[in-house]
Amino acid sequence: MHYLRSILFDAAVVILTIVVSLSAPFMALFNASSATVRAAAQVWVKGILFLMKHVIGLDYRVEGRGNVPDGPCIIACNHQSLWETAALCAIFPDASIVAKQELKKLPLVGWFLVRYPMILVDRSAGRHALRQMVDEARRAAGEGRKVLLFPQGTRQAIDEPMKFQSAGISALYTNLEVPVVPAACNSGLFWGKKTLMMHSGTITLSFLPPIAPGLPRKEFQEKMERMIAEEASRLLTVAEAKVAR
Known about the structure:
Layout: H1 2-21, H2 23-29, H3 34-56, E1 58-63, E2 74-77, H4 83-91, E3 96-100, H5 109-115, E4 119-121, H6 127-142, E5 147-149, H7 166-176, E6 180-185, E7 201-207, H8 217-244
């Protein structure tokens, strides 16, 4: 049954993507604003979450939403599946996500990412990439927008040791001087890293108390990584305990 539901979900997402993509030529023709592009993208991400809930039976709940400031901040979340990318975009529709520049090459998707605008980073460019990321993140924060980042750098399965690539998040923390909100989810229990098949259930996304600007870089890194790792572990333990009952 899970396999059939996953096939139906994939087919529905393809149809949804085609429908939303039909708006791209018109937005390009009339030089649509980033706000308009984000509105169209919201139809797509919210549609995906709707399909997850009603086709797969996969819903989600949010804990600690009050820990997220109303103004600009950096949200640093663990990364287990593609779910958190869609969910965070839906929860924070004006935010910019830091993503790899290779996504820019995807047909239509790349067009949306550039004009959203997302912060697309060439990870092979070293310090130049960090400067570019900081500049674009500062611009987003200046517009009152949030910046979303996955400090692990890539998806990691729930049974893998949690590893962080801290250079990016530390550069943002020390340069933007806005709070960092650590966040964790347990999406990998329901959507594995190396499979398209999803399972029904309820994902938990937890926002932790913000880390105020001003800490030494190393102290910030250790605190953020510890908070995310401990909360991710707690969420997995709680979810597994519920399944075992």
